[in-house]
Hints:
The chain is mostly helical. It is built from 9 helices and 3 strands. It has a 3-stranded mixed beta sheet, with no helix packed on it. The two termini are 23 Å apart.
Amino acid sequence: xxxxxxxxxxxxxxxxxxxxxxxxAVGASEGKGAETPAAESxxxxxxxxxxxxxxxxxxxxxxxxxxxxxxVETALVRAVVAAESNYNAYAVSRxxxxxLMQLMPATAADYGVHSPAALFDPEVNxxxxxRHLKRLxxxxxxxxxxxxxxxxxxxxxxxxxxxxxxxLETLNYTEAVIxxxxxxxxxxxxxxxxxxxxxxRGMRFNRQSRRLLKKYLDPSLxxxxxxxxxxxxxxxxxxxxxxxxxLPMFELDSGRMP
Length: 258
């Protein structure tokens, strides 16, 4: 039995509160620090075409056509399009990603598309994005979890972290794409990928909690000192009689606390 003072209980309560608060306080600053992909200077926003954007039916037809051409599952392409742009062929992100599959101009250039404006063409965008997916599927040996993470966070991040990407945006994205993929009839194994996402969420929470404790709580305050209250020969638990009148075996050394 250990007797603690009110000040010690307050310190312990504060530590537990900070641990529980880890997913909220640090999460509120997402996008500003090391937990998110490196921020790039925002490029000038590209102006979408003035004509009406392609209909959902038109986009669905193109997805089927392009997926078949490049031998990529239609369900996967649909899931990525839904997560990236919600079928809006004229979508432009603050980072400069364009069109249905939210392609960065630099990525599109790797596939021979050097005009950012061309990415507003739904067929050009789908062909380029699907070719990128196909390359990622080949590189990661059809591991859909890694492919989806790499599509969102970049291959460099996936490779550097050995697929342990803990960016909140990427975790949410990966889970959303996999669930969309399943709804659209995808049959590739994805259960392990979803389990990995949950595991990475736990890793992320623990790291943030440790960071909060280091920032807001002096660890030395949790170095509790105890001293025996009984004769040393009676410290054997088998010889210690518990009861209303008994003393605790140990108590906090309040004289050594700040």
